[in-house]
Design brief:
Layout lengths: L1 E9 L6 H12 L12 E7 L4 H16 L5 E9 L13 H19 L1
Antiparallel strand pairs: 1-2, 1-3
């Protein structure tokens, strides 16, 4: 199993309104040392592949066809061995069931105090 870490950013020659807005906000908060901000996106894609060469080809195609807009964005990626995914410690209950369980626990606690 391989993991692709993909970063997509606006091309340097283009305006980055989000980056400018973040820069202004940081200055307003007192972070005067910030000189420039570019805002992009970061993706992690797990690949059920063993071959790094095949993974490189597939990730390149993903970026070219969907993950980046070639007119206004650049992308870069790295391929690494995927760490084993931790198993879920417990199954989460739907909110309604969780509320009922909480109420039942409270009722039990109230009964035991008497």
């Amino acid at each position: 199993m391989l993991l692709a870490r993909i970063t997509v950013t606006p091309r340097p020659e283009l305006n980055d309104p989000q980056g400018r807005a973040v820069h202004r906000a940081l200055e307003t908060l007192g972070f005067d040392e910030v000189a420039h901000v570019r805002v992009g996106k970061y993706l992690e894609v797990s690949l059920d592949l063993e071959s790094r060469a095949r993974a490189e080809t597939r990730v390149h195609d993903m970026c070219e066809r969907l993950l980046s807009n070639q007119v206004i964005e650049d992308y870069r990626y790295e391929i690494a061995e995927a760490a084993p995914r931790p198993s879920a410690a417990r199954k989460l209950e739907p909110p309604a069931q969780a509320a009922e369980a909480t109420e039942a626990a409270r009722a039990t606690d109230d009964d035991s105090e008497e």
